[in-house]
């Protein structure tokens, strides 16, 4: 008697394995997608905490430099050592970079002076390759700090149709600065 040995799978076995892989995929993909969303939200929250801490240090430096209540002035500003004539703003030194301030807190990166944005990026470690800035019109004059992978959503962020960013609003004589994380669409 000769015996034949089967070394392959039957069609039924293959179909069952494919179906099981399909079920596993349907169950696993949303979990992996959720990790991406959680990672983006965590990145935004971490960055906001870093900016908030840095803002407190900047305010402390402003107090030491006696400019925490100043918000711009005439051309020479009485020769104040923390007045940058070329930028037209007060500043504090942050690791060798002039971070421009008003009322003791950083000016938003999208200001009228061209020196403000690059110095803000350097002081806060926000390179153009990693973050974009845009104005958020529906929240007054807030500046959105947007992860670079969402650069294509800047127009939607401007008008409030997409929310996965940080908003920074500089202080006024009657209000403190505001820093808020928006993560609804992350």
Summarize the structure.
The chain is of the alpha+beta class and 186 residues long. Helices cover 37% and strands 20% of the residues.
Question: What does this entry look like structurally?
Answer:
The chain has one domain. The chain contains 3 helices and 8 strands; from the N terminus they run αββββαββαββ. The chain has helices spanning about 10-65, 115-125, 155-160; strands at about 85, 90-95, 95-100, 105, 130-135, 140-145, 165-170, 180. The termini are far apart.
- What spatial order of strands do you see in the largest sheet? 1-2-3-4
Average of pLDDT: 85
Overall structural domain count: 1
Report strand %: 15-25%
The major pleated sheet works out as: 4 strands, antiparallel
Gyration radius, in Å: 26 Å
Q: Ranges with pLDDT <50 over ≥5 residues?
A: none
- Portion in helices: 25-40%
The N- and C-terminal alpha carbons lie at a distance of: 67 Å
Principal-axes geometry comes out as elongated
SSE run: HEEEEHEEHEE
Computed structural class: alpha+beta
> How many β strands by DSSP?
8
Structure annotation, total helices? 3
């Amino acid at each position: 008697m000769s015996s034949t040995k089967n070394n392959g799978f039957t069609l039924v076995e293959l179909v069952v394995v494919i179906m099981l892989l399909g079920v596993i995929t349907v169950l696993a993909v949303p979990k992996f997608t959720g990790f991406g969303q959680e990672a983006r939200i965590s990145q935004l929250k971490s960055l906001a905490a870093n900016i908030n801490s840095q803002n407190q240090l900047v305010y402390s430096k402003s107090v030491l430099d006696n400019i925490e209540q100043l918000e711009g002035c005439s051309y020479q500003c009485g020769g104040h050592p923390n007045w940058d004539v070329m930028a037209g703003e007060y500043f504090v030194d942050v690791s060798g970079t002039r971070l421009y301030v008003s009322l003791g807190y950083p000016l938003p990166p999208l200001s009228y002076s061209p020196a403000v944005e690059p110095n803000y990026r350097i002081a806060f470690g926000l390179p153009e390759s990693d973050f974009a800035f845009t104005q958020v019109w529906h929240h007054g004059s807030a500046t959105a700090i947007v992860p670079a992978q969402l650069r294509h959503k800047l127009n939607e962020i401007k008008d409030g149709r997409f929310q996965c960013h940080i908003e920074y609003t500089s202080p006024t004589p009657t209000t403190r600065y505001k820093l808020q994380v928006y993560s609804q669409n992350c």
